[in-house]
Amino acid sequence: MDNSSGVGVLDKAALVLSALESGPATLAGLVAATGLARPTAHRLAVALEHHRLVARDMQGRFILGPRLAELAAAAGEDRLLATAGPVLTHLRDLTGESAQLYRRQGEMRICVAAAERLSGLRDTVPVGSTLTMKAGSSAQILMAWEEPERLHRGLQGARFTATALSGVRRRGWAQSIGEREPGVASVSAPVRGPSNRVVAAVSVSGPIERLSRHPGRMHAQAVIDAAGRLSEALRRTS
Q1: Which of 29, 51, 74 represents a domain boundary (last residue)?
Q2: What is the distance, to the nearest Å, from the Cα of residue 52 to the centroid of all Cα atoms in its chain?
Q3: 25 in a domain, yes or no?
Q4: Do 213 and 108 reside in the same domain of the chain?
Q5: How confident is the model over 124-163, as pLDDT tens digits?
Q6: pTM for this one?
Q7: Angle of helix 8-20 relative to helix 27-34, nearest 10 degrees?
Q8: d(CA 238, CA 235)
Q9: Which domain holds residue 66?
Q10: Fewer C-beta neighbours within 10 Å, C or N terminus of the chain?
C-alpha cells in the first residue's frame, strides 16, 4: 500500500511518529526504523520536539510527546459530545427534568451539552454556562475523585463537606437541594474515560417541589444509567 500523501515532509514526520509508537528510540534507531537519512531524521525529530509531538526520555532518546496525549483527550471529548445529545434527551424524557453534561475547566465547571425540559417550570443551564465548583451535585461529582491535595483545596469555601464527598464515592451519585440556587434540586453521576478517570458529570435538575428533598431516590438510577452509557461509548471508541 502506498503511504504517500504527496506532501513529502509530512509523510516523513509521520514515519518518525510511527517509529516511536513501539517505544523510545535513539537517532540511529530512528534512522533504521524509518529509512530516512540521518540528518533528515534528526531535523524532523527536533522539529516535532519543538511542537511537543516528540519528547526525550532520561537517556536522551526520542519518545512520543505530551501534545499527542492532549490531542487524544480532545478527540475523546469530541466523542463524548457526539454521544451526549441522544443520551441526555433520553434522560430528560425518562425523568421529565432538564438534563446536563458538565466538564471541569480549571476551578469552574462548564455545561458542554444539555437537553431542556420542553415546558413548565424548569432549571435552564445554557450550553457554555460556567458554574462554580463550590456548590451543586455535578460539582460534587467532579470533585469527589480528585487527588487528596486538589480535593482539600476545592473544599475551601464549598457548600459541601469531605464527609459528603465520601458518601458520593460510596454511592456513585450525588444530590443537592438548594445548594447552587435556592429552590433548585439536582442529581448527578460520573462519566468515566477509558482509564476509569472521571471526565464529566451527568445531571438532572429542576424545582425542589417536583424533585423533592430526596431527589436521588427519584432519579439516581436514571442518571447513573445515562452516565454509564456515555462511559461505555468512550471505552468503545478509545
Answers
A1: 74
A2: 21
A3: yes
A4: yes
A5: 788 889 999 999 999 999 999 998 888 999 999 999 999 9
A6: 0.69
A7: 120
A8: 5
A9: 8-74
A10: N
